TrEMBL record:
It is a multi-pass membrane protein. It comes from the Bacteria. It comes from Motilibacter peucedani. Keywords: Cell membrane, Membrane, Transmembrane, Transmembrane helix. One of its GO terms (cellular component) is plasma membrane. InterPro entries: ABC3_permease_C. Residues 771-888 form the ABC3 transporter permease C-terminal domain. This is Putative ABC transport system permease protein. The chain crosses the membrane at residues 327-346, 367-393, 405-426, 453-470, 490-511, 542-563, 769-792, 813-837, 857-881.
């Protein structure tokens, strides 16, 4: 067995002769390789940024905290002052650092340590009712400058003095910030009237007033009340915490003044968001869980580790897995459509070379030799184009290009031209002739139909399996790191679009034959000839398939982008509830503020309400829910001025029903609604009567809505702490009227923040880019399909010119042949894309990207009709180009040769 010999002059000659089609195929390879290699790493980079962003937003909830209890105190034993408490805290920091695994330690910032007291009741100071003593270290040093007085010092005569249990309150010196001193009207030398949780009086003295050198130092996060009074408003607790700063000298005095149960020694490790990504999130979450499990619950007084970092990372990985799977749908469409275009380009190249290949075969060229020559030629075209695509992906991207997604594109580019070329050469001299027997010809045609039907059935079954997998499993894998289960659902849109294109392809020749039969009874010859040609050329599957699939996936991507954008806008409305939301300390003055805001220009309505994020609700089971106490008619009018769904059930919240407060409840726990429902408020139960479902507000969690008058009639005091306002100037009016301690949330800012988040922004850009590329590929498929039929069409028109066909009629004939398939493909693709988006919407879990409590409603943009304009425009250009080329043909040459 001899190896095939390569005839390099033939290879070079074909490359030079067909440089135009080969350059076009190379350009498609460059585009497909650049997109397939560059887009997945770009989405991966956005996913890594999303993990970092979500961890950064989690704030202190993501900190890893090491808590070391103090030795227990006994009432009959004396206390000994320990002057080395600050050094002991530093030892705890070192010990904690040794306990953390290396991979987890690499993702954490330098620790910050603190010793904080329990909430101490503060009397005689209107601006604060809770005092917290705190000593903080770490970070960037927690440095301060003393603007009045001096740093806290010791009140003991001896460093290690022993204090008897009946010696009375032990004096402790603290420092206060400038904001705390101004709020509580404190000066150096003043005393704070405080008592411990057992109502025992304490002797707290202010030694000085400080100003932090760096208020953003992470060390201050251990006790935010040290810098300024912190207001906390809830259903069970309403308090303002002020902080008293301890120094290394006064820290031992605080330990003498307070029992060990009321002091917390902790070392906090905040994660470094920039060091967290998809790859490390799984490992770090597992390390956190193992670290927490190793030390148990700390019931025996041993040190404990606690953190929500594992939950934050799991939620981030879930969200990232969702977005990555959604991007895989678009990647699969790009790769498969590009592969179809490459097959179409290879088919056009082989059709152009058919005579040359047949001549080589007649002269004795072997099929293996031709295969080797065509393979070398394919390598010479594909490899440089692939290298250029990879280079473009590397230069334009921020990460190394992917080498997995381009494989199908390069495989088709390498294999399609040689295989189709050898097939054409084999058929040209294979000795196969059309049989004279009619039944034999019918049998061959039936066999060809069966083969085509088998292929179509295979595509249909694959599309059905992919669609079922998408609808049942969804696009999100069960495990965030499992990407193998998302491969089949990712193929669903492309396979369903291909199946729809094959169905339309079956209908196209039937329509052409019906048109031909109808025109046969007429007297006009040219339309009949056009219909006859259309009935033979309309059945060419590949160009029609490319145009239809490209149009369908472009429509799908456009609907996906529009749905995400509208979902983010709706999600911002659900999150804020109005154009602007003000949240401040609960007081009766909030109603006055809402009235002033409602009377301002640019504000349609302003409604005061009490909003508690944690309210205990009990029925057969007990759970927490978000509580909204508002005037029901005003709340209903507020919803009417927003895109949020109206809530006519709010009219049921008037008065009391059998001594119970009517309530609208939303919960996923049916046991909560069984039995007698009650709400815990200010330590007292308030009986509720469920009269309907709560309106869709917030994040979709449990929600209870009651009328303010009914709630007050039941004896519950709930002064408002929130104002919802709608109107173009709602945010600016609330800022002008609000106090310095009020927090204002603007809907437009929330919407902008969600749209500019790394992952949603990457998905939106990917969908828009996919739609653009799909339209370009559909247009290229139209051009290649027209080029494939152009020689035969030109020959027919040239013969008709000898019979008196005018140029205008020739252009109409070309348009009549090309326009109906293009219009059917564009219209069918547009409908398929919209139906695909509607079918797959619930399986895409877009709510994880848009931030809505439920999946968004489908949004169909006007841009889905672009194929209906673009493809006919492409046909018009092709008609002009073909007319220009045919005009150069001499009539005498047509008469002599009989063709073109």
């Amino acid at each position: 067995m001899r190896l095939p010999r390569l005839h390099l002059p033939s290879v070079v000659g074909r490359l030079r002769a067909d440089r135009g089609p080969l350059a076009l195929a190379g350009a498609v390879v460059v585009l497909g390789t650049a997109l397939a290699a560059g887009l997945p790493p770009a989405v991966g980079h956005a996913a890594d940024l999303a993990v970092s962003d979500l961890v950064a937003r989690a704030g202190a909830d993501a900190d890893l905290v090491y808590t070391v209890p103090f030795e227990p105190d006994y009432a009959e034993d004396p206390k000994q002052r320990d002057p080395g408490m600050a050094a002991t805290l530093r030892d705890s920091v070192e010990l904690a650092g040794l306990e953390i695994p290396r991979d987890l330690a690499a993702a954490l910032q330098p620790p910050a340590a603190s010793i904080t007291s329990a909430d101490l009741k503060l009397s005689g100071h209107g601006a604060g009712d809770v005092l917290q003593l705190a000593y903080v270290s770490g970070g960037r040093g927690a440095r301060v400058s003393w603007t009045a007085g001096s740093a806290p010092g010791t009140t003991a005569r001896e460093p290690a003095v022993v204090v008897p249990p009946d010696s009375g309150p032990w004096p402790v010196e603290v420092g206060v910030s400038e904001q705390t001193a101004a709020a509580l009207h404190l000066r150096p030398g003043d005393r704070l009237d405080a008592s411990d949780p057992l109502q025992r009086d304490m002797d707290i003295r202010v030694s000085g007033v400080f100003r932090p050198v760096d208020p953003l130092d992470p060390a201050w996060q251990q006790a935010p009340g040290l810098l300024a009074p912190q207001a906390y408003v809830g259903a069970l607790v309403r308090r303002t915490v002020v902080g008293g700063l301890l120094s290394p000298t006064s820290l031992p005095d605080a330990r003498v003044a307070l029992d060990s149960d009321y002091l917390t020694r902790a070392v906090s490790f905040a994660p470094a968001p920039a060091r967290l990504d998809r790859g490390s999130s799984t490992v770090l979450a597992g390390a956190v869980v193992r670290l927490e499990a190793r030390y148990g619950g700390g019931d025996d007084g041993s040190p404990t580790w606690r953190s929500q970092l594992d939950r934050v990372l799991h939620g981030a990985r879930r969200r990232v897995a969702t977005a990555t799977a959604q991007a895989a749908l678009l990647f699969a469409g790009l790769v498969l459509t590009t592969s179809l275009v490459l097959v179409l380009a290879a088919e056009q190249l082989v059709r152009r070379r058919r005579a040359t290949l047949a001549d080589l075969r007649v002269r004795g060229a072997s099929l293996p030799g031709l295969l080797a020559e065509l393979a070398v030629e394919s390598v010479l075209v594909t490899v440089p184009a692939a290298a250029a695509g990879l280079l473009a992906a590397r230069v334009l991207g921020s990460r190394p290009p992917s080498l997995t997604w381009p494989v199908p594109v390069l495989a088709v580019a390498l294999l399609a031209p040689p295989l189709l070329g050898v097939r054409a050469a084999a058929r040209s001299t294979g000795g196969r002739r059309a049989p004279a027997n009619r039944s034999a010809r019918r049998s061959l045609a039936r066999t060809a139909q069966l083969r085509r039907g088998a292929l179509e059935v295979a595509v249909l079954l694959a599309a059905a399996a992919a669609l079922v997998a998408l609808r049942q499993r969804g696009v999100v894998p069960v495990e965030p790191d499992d990407v193998s289960g998302a491969l089949l659902p990712a193929l669903a849109p492309t396979l369903v679009a291909a199946t729809g294109a094959l169905v339309l392809l079956r209908l196209l020749p039937l329509g052409a034959r019906l048109a031909r039969g109808w025109l046969r009874r007429g007297t006009r010859t040219v339309p009949f000839v056009v219909a006859a040609r259309a009935s033979t050329t309309a059945a060419r599957p590949l160009p029609f398939l490319v145009v239809t699939v490209g149009s369908a996936l472009a429509g799908f991507a456009l609907c996906l982008a529009a749905t995400q954008t509208s979902g983010q806008a709706d999600g911002a409305w659900f999150a804020v509830g109005a154009d602007a939301q003000l949240h401040t300390q609960a007081s009766a003055s909030v109603r006055t503020l809402a009235g002033r805001a409602a009377g301002s220009d640019g504000v349609r309505i302003a409604v005061p309400a009490r909003v508690s994020d944690v309210a205990l609700v009990s029925g057969t089971s007990t759970g927490s829910a978000r509580l909204v106490v508002a005037d029901a008619p005003a709340f209903e009018r507020l919803l009417a001025t927003t895109p949020l769904p109206d809530a006519p059930q709010l009219a049921r919240l008037h008065g009391l029903s059998g001594g119970r407060v009517p309530a609208l409840v939303r919960t996923a726990d049916p046991a909560l609604l069984r039995g007698k429902l009650a709400l815990r408020w200010d330590g007292e139960p308030v009986a509720l009567q469920v009269v309907g479902g709560a309106p869709p507000l917030g994040d979709g969690g449990p929600l209870v809505v009651v009328d303010a008058a009914s709630f007050a009639a039941a004896g519950a005091d709930a002064p408002p702490d929130t104002v919802w306002a709608t109107g173009p100037r709602a945010a600016s009016v609330l800022r002008r009227l609000a106090g310095p301690d009020a927090a204002i949330t603007v809907r437009e800012a929330v919407q902008h923040e969600r749209r500019t988040s790394p992952l949603p922004q990457a998905l939106l850009r990917l969908a828009e880019l996919t739609a653009t590329v799909m339209l370009a590929l559909a247009l290229l498929g139209l051009v290649l399909g027209a080029a494939a039929t152009a020689p035969a069409r030109g020959q027919t028109l040239a013969r008709l010119r000898t019979l008196g066909l005018r140029p205008v009629e020739a252009r109409r004939a070309v348009a009549g042949e090309l326009l109906p398939p293009a219009l059917l493909a564009a219209a069918g693709g547009t409908v398929l894309g919209t139906v695909l988006a509607r079918t797959a919407l619930r399986s895409l879990s877009l709510r994880l990207v848009t931030g809505q409590p439920s999946d968004p409603a489908l949004a169909v943009p006007w841009t889905v009709v672009v194929p209906l304009v673009l493809l006919p425009a492409g046909v018009a250009v092709l008609v002009v180009v073909e007319s220009s080329l045919r005009r150069r043909q001499k009539l005498g040459q047509v008469l002599r040769v009989g063709g073109t």
